[in-house]
Amino acid sequence: MKTRTEALRELRRTLSEAGFDTAALDARLLLLTAIGISATDLITWPDTPLTPEQATTLAAFAERRLNHEPVARIVGEREFWGLPFRLSPETLVPRPDTETLVETALALLPDRQAPLRIVDFGTGSGCILVALLHELPQATGLGVDLSFGALVTARANAAGNRVGNRCHFALSRWADAIAGRFDLIVSNPPYIASGVIPTLDEEVRDHDPRLALDGGPDGLEPYRILLTEAERLLAPGGLVVVEIGYDQAEALSRLAGLHGLEILRIAHDLSNNPRCVAMKRL
Ligand code: GLN
User: Fold this and answer.
1) Domain that holds residue 41
2) What is the domain-level CATH number for residue 26?
3) Predicted model pTM
4) Which residues of 123-153 are buried (b: 16+ CB within 10 A; e: fewer)?
5) What is the pLDDT confidence band of residue 218, given thresholds at 50, 70 and 90?
6) If you write DSSP's letter for every residue of 51-89 in order, what string do you get?
C-alpha cells in the first residue's frame, strides 16, 4: 500500500495535470478527510500506509474532484465566520463574500447584548443566522427555507455551533407562512438571472442547488418579495440586510425606495464589489 506522502504526491500530480490551480490544497484536504486525520497527524506520521478502505475512499474522492465537484462538497464541510458548517445537496457552499453581510449587520446594531429577534430567509446551511447568533448572545433566530433538506442541515449546524437553543426553523416559501415582528431581517437570496445560470463556473452551475441560485428573469424577484414582506415583518427601528449580485446595487436602491425603505449602507466585498445592502424603514 502507498504511504500517506506517496498518495498525496500522486493525487496532487493527477489534479495538477488535469488543470486544477488548487491541486496541492485540494489533494491535502481530500487525503486528510479520506484517512480521517488532522494536518498534524500527517506531518507526524507521513509514512503510515493507507488501509485498503482509505485508498478506496480517496480514489472515489479523486474521481469526484476530477468531475469538478467542489472540495467543500466532497469533504461535506466548509468554514464560515470561523465556524464549521456541514453541507448537503440542498445547500449552497457558504462563500467568504457572504461574511460581508454578517459584518454589516453587526456594525449597524446599536447593542449587541439586546434580545434581538432575527429572521433569515433562504437560510440554506444556516451560515448567516448561526454566525449572527454566535456574535449576539441574547438574540433569537428563525431560519426559513423552501427546502426541507436545507432546514435539517441548518438545524444541525445551529446545534453543532452551540446556538441551537436560540433558534427555530420553518419551511416556508419566503414569508408566506411567517408571522411576527423582527428586529433584523437577513437574506442571501438566489439572485442570479435565470438566463445567466448556464454561463456560471461549472463548480457552481453543476453542483450548487439551482433553487439557491435562480433569482428569476432579472435576478431580482426574491428582493421584490422580501421587501414587500418587510413592511409587515419589521419591528420599529428594525433593519433589513441582504446580499446582492455585483451589479444589483442600483436596482436594489430603487426597489428599497418603492417599499418605503431607506438605504443605510452598501457594503463591498473582498474584491471591492458592492455585495450587501442594509436598509431601514423611512
Ligand atoms: N443563506 C445561505 C448562504 O448564504 C443560502 C443562500 C442561498 O441559498 N441563496 O449560504
Assistant:
1) 4-67
2) 1.10.8
3) 0.94
4) bbbbbbbbbbbbbbeebbbbbbbbbeebbbb
5) very high
6) PHHHHHHHHHHHHHHHTT--HHHHHTEEEETTEEEE--T
CA torsion through residues 126, 128, 131, 134, sign: negative
Of 128, 169, 241, best ligand 1 pocket probe by most atoms within 8 Å of the beta carbon: 128
Q: Answer yes or no: do 53 and 119 share one domain.
A: no
Per-residue pLDDT at 205: 94
Cell readout for 80 is 464560515
100 and 63 belong to one structural domain: no
- Which residue's CA is the nearest one to ligand 1's atom 2? 124
Ligand 1 atom closest to the Cα of residue 209 is 8
Q: What is the pLDDT of residue 282?
A: 80
Place of cell 419589521: 234
Distance from the alpha carbon of residue 187 to the mean position of ligand 1, in angstroms: 7
Ligand 1 centroid to residue 148 C-alpha, Å = 14
- The domain total for the chain is 2
Q: Is the pLDDT of residue 1 over 90?
A: no
pLDDT digit string, tens, across residues 159-215: 999 999 999 999 999 999 999 999 999 999 999 999 999 999 999 999 999 999 999
Domain check: are 135 and 271 in the same one?
A: yes
